[in-house]
Design goal:
Elements: H1 3-16, E1 33-38, H2 43-51, E2 58-63, H3 74-84, E3 90-96, H4 106-115, H5 120-128, H6 133-137, H7 143-155, E4 165-170, E5 177-181
Parallel strand pairs: 1-2, 1-3, 3-4
Antiparallel strand pairs: 4-5
């Protein structure tokens, strides 16, 4: 049985036995908060437990490294939707130690792409089209700096209202949070 078939078989039973009932909530976050965090597998259950949030409490946006790399990309759009349409009033950016984006080397990733069938011609076409693929794929050196960068991108966005934007780093082994930026403090 393929992974997709396993998922569909489980889902059929999940719906038929009405297991979804325990997760019923509205589309509005009870704690009026949107979190931008990493897609790391260690955070799927750990992060909500470490923050004392349950289903329905928050909006979560996930991306590699909890990075906002473009002010008008889908990450910012998701944050704006949470703030303007879904009643969120605060933003938390939560990076984590031992992130796969930490120290990530764009050239190594491009070599992996080539090994999996992406041609040199495709890479060249992107570069000649004005896309700096090496910069776009580059990771970061220090998670605290990356979190601060994302907080600044959000806080200084022309469409962000006057809301607190906090920055934290979580330990993916213990769930311990370290404060990087206190969004309640005005500079």
């Amino acid at each position: 049985m393929s992974l997709l078939q396993e998922v569909l078989a489980f889902n059929k039973e999940f719906v038929e036995t009405e297991q979804y009932r325990e997760y019923a909530t509205t589309k509005y976050p009870n704690k009026r908060m949107v979190i931008l965090t990493c897609m790391d597998t260690r955070l799927v259950e750990l992060l909500p437990k470490a923050l004392n949030v349950k289903n329905g409490d928050i909006k979560i946006v996930k991306t590699a490294g909890a990075l906002v790399s473009h002010p008008f990309g889908s990450i910012m759009r998701s944050i704006l939707v949470a703030l303007y349409q879904l009643k969120a009033d605060e933003v938390l950016v939560i990076g984590h130690h031992d992130c796969g984006m930490s120290g990530m080397n764009a050239n190594a990733m491009i070599e992996n792409m080539k090994e999996r069938g992406i041609s040199e011609e495709t890479i060249s076409t992107l570069n000649y089209s004005g896309i700096d693929i090496e910069n776009w794929l580059e990771g970061f050196n220090k998670v605290e700096d990356s979190v601060s960068h994302s907080v600044d991108m959000i806080k200084n966005h022309p469409l962000i209202p006057a809301v607190p934007v906090h920055g934290l780093v979580i330990d993916p082994s213990t769930g311990k949070l370290d404060l990087v930026v206190d969004g309640y403090e005005r500079k």
